[in-house]
Amino acid sequence: SSFSSSSDALALARELQSQGYLAVIVNDVVDGKGRYRVRIDGGKQRENAEQIQAALARKTGFKGMIVTL
To answer: Are 18 and 2 in contact, with CB atoms under 8 Å apart?
Structure first.
């Protein structure tokens, strides 16, 4: 998820962390404006990331997207 407010990003990251996810906040710039992106570490195998993505969607309704870093 992406936010313009650091406090909104922090609230989501903390909520996800309380549910056992390894959530981190990454600062980014989009169209010249600062953004705070909440990411969840899905591990090194795409299959693991897909399983986490599916579980997150079931629990929270967040679709999410998988990115390779």
So the answer is: no
Alpha-carbon separation of residue 42 from 4, 52, 53, 65, 67 (angstroms)? 24, 7, 8, 11, 9
pTM: 0.80
Helices (H), 1-69: 6-18, 46-60
- Extract the tokens encoding 62: 């967040």
Q: What tens digit of pLDDT does each residue of 4-61 get?
A: 999 999 999 999 999 889 999 999 998 999 999 999 988 888 998 999 899 889 988 8
